[in-house]
Amino acid sequence: MGLLVVGSVAFDSVETPFGSVKEALGGSAIYISVAASYFTAPVRFVAVVGGDFPKEHIRFLEERNIDLDGLQIVQEGKTFRWGGRYHYDLNMRDSLYTELNVFEKFNPVIPGSFKNSAYVCLGNIDPILQRQVLERVAKPRLVVGDTMNYWIESKPKELAETMKAMDVIVVNESEARLLTNEPNLVKAAKRIMKLGPKIVIIKKGEHGATLVTEDTIFSAPAYPLENINDPTGAGDAFAGGFVGWLARTDDLSAENLKRAVVYGSTLASFCVEKFSVDGLKDLTYLQIQDRYRSFVQLSRFDER
Amino acid sequence: MGLLVVGSVAFDSVETPFGSVKEALGGSAIYISVAASYFTAPVRFVAVVGGDFPKEHIRFLEERNIDLDGLQIVQEGKTFRWGGRYHYDLNMRDSLYTELNVFEKFNPVIPGSFKNSAYVCLGNIDPILQRQVLERVAKPRLVVGDTMNYWIESKPKELAETMKAMDVIVVNESEARLLTNEPNLVKAAKRIMKLGPKIVIIKKGEHGATLVTEDTIFSAPAYPLENINDPTGAGDAFAGGFVGWLARTDDLSAENLKRAVVYGSTLASFCVEKFSVDGLKDLTYLQIQDRYRSFVQLSRFDER
Known about the structure:
10 helices; homodimer; four-stranded mixed sheet; UDP-N-acetylmuramoyl-L-alanine:D-glutamate ligase; alpha/beta
């Protein structure tokens, strides 16, 4: 089996109405891997950091059984930094600064021991890099990809090429609409399916997530949390929980895809309760199962 | 039993990216009653129209087994008119004009035969009028009320008084936040419960609806329609389906409240497929049951 995760590692400085953190551990590869690590191990990690990346983060990732053979440490460089501020309703945020640093010249090198990965999760990075990753691994069983408005607008051709190789794409509502120029989300999902991914997941933040395939539409609610402190990384935690569950079970049936969506939602719900990756740090499998069952309670009604 | 519905009757002129209608039948009392009429009959209707209200609409309402004893026809006046235009993504609309006409001096007179109604649904009208209605009926088993930003901002004290007498309040997300000054929807719902209604339903448009009670949270998705033509009345159709189901079953258990939310969502989904009340005109009970089962498909996943 084996799950390979590629993406960014960042120091995030985040302000929300409920607090703030400075240069806390973040980035798509981090959130995806940590979330997935509750389901499958070791998670194969490919990313780049600078010489300023502290040993405590390395230790944390190793403790989560994340295989860092694919982590490039550019000693003379600095780790990617991002700063953002969330509005009062947490659905809107302003980017305050983005310092790419070592991430600007990231060349995803795949260690030999990672090349046979059956599951690949491409975090939100340049679609050219995403494609390079896929060229450097043997044929995986499932490729899950993320992207963002920035790439949809700045590199549409490159993204279109990469999307052809994705089995699953995980996008939010505005990305789905922007990709297809179609406001209706069901139609947008169906158009995306013509661009490559046969499985489309539309993340809707506090409104949950919808899975669309050729013959299935499934909507999972978001967990109704009273205390959301930091939405950063929720989408990546979703992707990590989703692909981690699939890698664990190696079952791509419609029923198991639905379960995977709920596990993704489960990890996202833990993620947003605390700042940075704190919400994903010390979970037990029992806690995850309990919250999964809460999703059952939340959405179950009599069939007649 | 008996379900009493009070609200507005309007001639709506609506433009959406998919078409338009001029002076079509609309108003909260209309949408609520027509939706509810698929579950319980006769629906007791209290509203006001002008002398310009055509006989064909009267016939339509009578055919739906709606009891018009409470319909006041002010021969020398004109029916309430509203015009609006929806944006491309249908989540935003601009009101183009509002002509209250006979609705401005609406005094909801409750016919004697309506006073024993066990279920009362108060459409979105002045909270003072809503309270008058409740003073004029014997103690109902369940009072469901709607409101809107306009009343929350312009008559907060009157609304607070009326809310004390509501068992269920049906609000959308922005109304819930405005009522409580609380962006988190779970917290907002809990605060609303302290203002009177022990059952709070938050309508989320294309994202479904969430039911919150003391010990239950339940989220129903919206039906993933590919063709939405006119969102007007969806919230009222939801309320009508919800209260109609409860009046039919006379069962206020948590399990049945969940079913009622899904029946509300079902009627709302039919409503938005066509302009005005056309989507609610010629449904069969079988069609409604089929769509209810589609909601099961849409939201069901394995418990473990």
